[in-house]
Structure formats: structure tokens, C-alpha cells
Amino acid sequence: MQSTIYQNVPTQTIDVQGTKFVYRKLGTNTGVPVIFLNHLAATMDNCDPRIMDGIASHYQIICFDNRGVGGTEGKTPKTIAEMAKDARAFIHALGYEKVDLVGFSLGGFISQEILLQEPALVRKAIIAGTGPAGGEGIKNVTRITYLDIFRGLLTFKDAKTYLFFNRNKNGKKSAKEFLSRLEERKENRDKKMKVSNFQRQLKAIHAWGLQSSQDLSVIKQPVLVVNGDNDRMVPSSNTEDLSKRIQNSELIIYKDAGHGGIFQYHEEFVKKALEFLAQ
């Protein structure tokens, strides 16, 4: 049985090749563990508690701050490939030989690299709000992010309000609920990300957007590909492209949703994720 919820799960540390990584682990200690890989500028406090608790109801789920993020030491790498190497080193430091991946946005880029670098490590993957190397519009993420950060400052709103959700009734309601969930944890919150490391993440994403296309047909694992139908950050056409290029994939596009479709439709997403992982 699940012994705790994400709101109060303790933060742990582990040495990964001489660097202190922080992570949180919750759920049932059976089966293949699920590794959650997060988005641009996200620390562990940006994990949606409903998704974490939902998956933890049946699986052990681990989220972590990759190098240079939040409470983890070091400098953030300037390439997605290096971020994936760090994530793999973290997974191995925990002693896991086989994991499932859930990667959102930047975490979806990193998940693809892990699948290509060390396919034997991954049983199944869920990638949301993401796209392939060289995908349509990914090179524009930096510009869109800075514009919406500025927009957020002018309107006294979190930039994720604009980056992740549509600006209609449903989107505004979902944004408000999502941001409220992120504040549920009151104690032992994660450290903020340094601006310099945030900028390094943006450089890595920009390089990913300019990178040559990768051969994703070599990915043989089952992959669930998810997005909203109106993703401004990583255009939704990338999601359909991924599904076509990954042989054993399943595609879900949420209607009237943006980049944060899995947060807007968190109940439906958790139900589908659990079904997919159990198949």
C-alpha cells in the first residue's frame, strides 16, 4: 500500500559520480519503478501532485532534480544528450536495471535520448508535450518562454499560466487549479533553480530544435505519446510526428488543451498511464 502522498514525501539525496542529487520516491515498492523527468525550469516542487499520487497508487515513482536543477549540485549541461547521461547515472546509482519513464516537455526530449543511448534500461515510456530533435518550432521555445515570463511579470501571474494552458475559460480554470496544487507542499520545499542553469537548459533546448533528425524507428519499447491539441511551446504536430516515427506507439491528443494537457486532464491521464504501464 502507498504509505504517503507527494505533498509530504521526504526529499532524499544520493551521490552520483561525486555529485549530490536530490530526489523524492513514493508509492508501492513492487514491479518496475517509474522515473519522472520534468520540464524546463522545473524543480521537484513543479511535479503535479495528482499525477505523482495517481501513479504511486500502483507503482513506485521517483522524481529528481537533474544536474544543476533545484537542490542537485553542479552545472546544468548544455545538451540534451548530456542531460540524459546524467539521468541514466542517477537511475543506476539507485540500483535500478530496468525502469519505466514518464517525461514531460524537456523531460520528453531526455526520455528519447535515454531510449536511444541505453535501450536495455527502459521497459516502457510515456512522453508528453514533447517532440523529436529538429522538430517543428522547438527552436522557438526560448523566445516564447522569455515573452511569457515578461507577460507574467506584467500581469502578476506565473508564466506557466500562459505557457501551459489555453487563454479560454477551460484553460484559465485549469491553470489556476494546477498552480494551486503546486503550492500544497508547505514544508521542506525544493531550492529554486539558478538563472544561469535555467539559461543553460534553454540553450540545450534550442540546440535540440536545430539538431538533425534522429532515427526513432530503432525504439522498440511501447511508447505512449501525449499532448494537448494547441501546444504553443512544442507545437502539437510534433506529437503526431513522434507517434508515426516510433513503431510501437500510442497517441493521445487532448481537445481544448495546450502544452500542459496532462495537467488539465490529469484524471484521464493517470487512468490511461496506469492502463498503459500495466499492459
Automatic annotation (TrEMBL):
Residue span(s) of domain AB hydrolase-1: 33-263
Coiled coil: none
InterPro entries given in the database record: AB_hydrolase, AB_hydrolase_1, AB_hydrolase_fold
Alphabetical list of PANTHER family matching this protein: AB HYDROLASE-1 DOMAIN-CONTAINING PROTEIN (PTHR43433:SF10), HYDROLASE, ALPHA/BETA FOLD FAMILY PROTEIN (PTHR43433)
The protein's name in its UniProt record: Pimeloyl-ACP methyl ester carboxylesterase
Protein species of origin: Ohtaekwangia koreensis
